[in-house]
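Dock zinc ion; give full complex structure.
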Amino acid sequence: MICHEEEAAAARLLTCDVAVEELLPQLVGLPIERMDASPVMSRTTALTRNDVSQPCPGCGQVSGWTHPRYVRHVADEAVGGRPVVIDPSVQRLYCENPACPRATFVEQVDGLTERHQRRTPAPRRLVEAVAGALAGSAGARLPAVLHQTLSWATVLNCPMRIALPDRPPPVVAGIDEFALLKRHRYATIIIDADSGQRVDVLPDRRAATVTAWLREHPGVRVVCRDGSGAFA
Ligand SMILES: [Zn+2]
């Protein structure tokens, strides 16, 4: 008969049989130094390889000339209702190209870190989706429920960082103005009149701005415009 302690020991062994990488695939290939889980947060400390070589984001030349490490702190998706923070120790590298304006750059780990991001790609995509749908203070409240804390200002800035899809210039362009601040500040939206897809947004509604855009897109053959005098 198995006593209570043996059952508990077997349960502990079963728990250990689950590889951490199966639960957190973003940590594959990274030696984990420490995992802590308190009632309010889970924190993992990991280390990247020493023999790293990566392309410089400034010039594309691959460098393996390493600088001292430093520890980043990135928020990951919540696990078990707790916020998760991963602290990867990453390598800073020197760019070996004397013509490159960047002296150093930081290695990035696929699926875990991104340049200028304090989140892993998974919660970053979630925050961007919420920011795109809700924006402002409403967009700041929903991520808090999902253990992703961010201010309304960050939520407003999020859509500005989302890469725009590459859309070919339309043959038939629809041009219209819209208010950024009613009666004070207006901008111009350009759509593909055939598909209804947004093509570009111009920062104001001045004729010179719209004309400059049309000159840069000679493929436009027909323009459907708003009746405003500025667009005439
Ligand atoms: Zn470079």
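Observed: Residues 16-114 form one domain.
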